[in-house]
Amino acid sequence: MSNRLRNKKHGNVIVWVLLAMLVFGLGGYGARNFGASVQSIGTVGDRAIDLRDYARALQGDIQTLSAQIGQPVSFAQAQTLGVVQQAQGQIIATTALDYEAGRIGISAGDDEVRDRLSKLSAFRGADGQFDRDTYKLLLQREGMTEGEFEAKLRDETARTILQDAAVGATEVPGSVVSALTAWTTETRDFTIAELIASDLPEPVPAPDEAALKSYYDAHPADFTRPEERKITYVWLRPEMLADKVTLDEAALRKSYQDRIGEFVTPEKRLVERLVYPTEEAAKAAKARFDAGQATFEALAKERGLELSDIDLGEVTEADLGAAGAAVFAMGEPGVAGPLPSEFGPALYAMNGIIAAQETTFEAAREELASEASLDQARRLVAQQSENIADLLASGATLEEVAKEAGMELGQIDYSEASEDGIAGYGEFRQAAAAARTEDFPQLLTLKDGGLFALRLDAIVPPALRPMDEVRDAVAAGWTAEETHRRLAARAAELQAGLANGAKLNTSGLVVTRYTDFARNGHLADAPGEIVSRAFALDLGQSAVIDTSGRVFLVQTDAIHAASPDSAESKRIAAAVKAQLDQSLGSDMFQFYVQSVENEAGISLNAAAINAVHAQMN
After folding, report:
1. Mean of the pLDDT values across residues 268-281?
2. What is the model's pTM?
3. Are 263 and 256 in contact (CB under 8 A)?
4. How many Cα neighbours within 13 Å face the side chain of 171?
5. Contact residues for 140 (Cβ-Cβ < 8 A; gap 6+)
6. Nearest residue to 140 (alpha-carbon basis) of 130, 148, 151, 152
7. pLDDT tens for residues 21-44?
8. If DSSP codes are grouped into helix, strand and coil, which group holds residue 512?
């Protein structure tokens, strides 16, 4: 629940979902097609969990997910992705807050409800003021009375008061913020060295026979020949019939016109779109972006989204509808908006310009001819498939079929590692792995339109190769293992000296020194574990890092604490505090809601819930 609470306030769930449906014309679906005898899906304490509110919340979450991924999400997919459980958790938590607000006597007065109602943009007329006719019309479309909506608005106001009281006083202690900021901004100087074979006091000798035998016996899997399947096959590839194909120039030109979208592409933009519930919210976000107070990524995260969730990819001006002209008027990357979208006012981040491109028929002809030739060849192959299948069914051998049908005849010692020739096709590998010696060859199709049939002649089981056959590989394996062992031992010896005050840069090894290195820095061509170890060591300490077959020494030379008064430290401290305050507040509110739910008790009506789900299918 904590992630959900970080992304949206429970106090606003129902009213905002309802408003979204009113604005986007989603009313009625799953919200009012239920019998009058069933009004709730359960209770929290003595407060009913409104069935229609659950239907609206569920539909709203599905619509939101559909907008995020850019394609419709079915109810079955929503169940798999946890959307149903999320909607139930939201509505139960909202009802729990309604119950608690009523229990302790929190309520919103008529003046407060009237004021909030007048500020809802969904009910404004052409003059920008609250319009009662619009208000009535939209509520009628949703199947609600004014009294019902205003009661929900009153509940939402009370929930907001309760929520603000629960989390308003949460604040992370300054000492925690200072400690975490200092930890984050600390930089270090350290020296590293990778030990290689030339760093050993003496070269690793060639292994004697006993060492080879010992290594060979200890690593049988490295020297075991996999199962081999001796297979005979026949293969007809479209390319084999290319000389029988006649190309039609008029057909090539028609193909070019039919696929003109591939050869003539309009100018495009790389765009991300961030939708807001109101024009005012979008304007406020744009103002913060323009003032440098928030990045576009930060604005997205405030709405519970990642940039990947709002990425529209490469779009044309037409793809953006009413917002297209403004976005395409931008000559360089930036953020435009608020601009309209099918989901409401939005900010558009334009991240790149892709110029229009045109490939003439003459330039595309070779590609078109090659594709047309292969396409016709595939048809010729398909035309021969019935004759080949008949030959196999009559008992003809593969050798006879190859001669009669002009197919390629071949043999292969097939194993899981085979990938050359026909073994590069997944269909062949699947058939080869499943074949039995008693099977009759069957005609099968490859993904490129080719045909094949195979016969399993014999199976050679896995076997340990004789050492004489793999002697060079055994020697290489032993040498690598022994070299690594000696390097690790040498590193331990050197590290003992470093522990007594020696410096790594005087060890005789080739070293690299890094200064003022940040905790989140990256080392090129070196494991990330080096950085984490360097920041875990005290000043002057060293460590051996043995990972991925490589051996390193690292020594911390200096530790630099950032000035808490620097602009960067203050910026990071503010971000740390905001994140910790939000996290703490969310966690506190989660515990509070769970406490209310546990104390009040939850009872759910499975039949009513299933009735809502049936409307969604």
Report:
1. 92
2. 0.53
3. yes
4. 6
5. none
6. 148
7. 444 444 444 344 555 556 889 999
8. strand
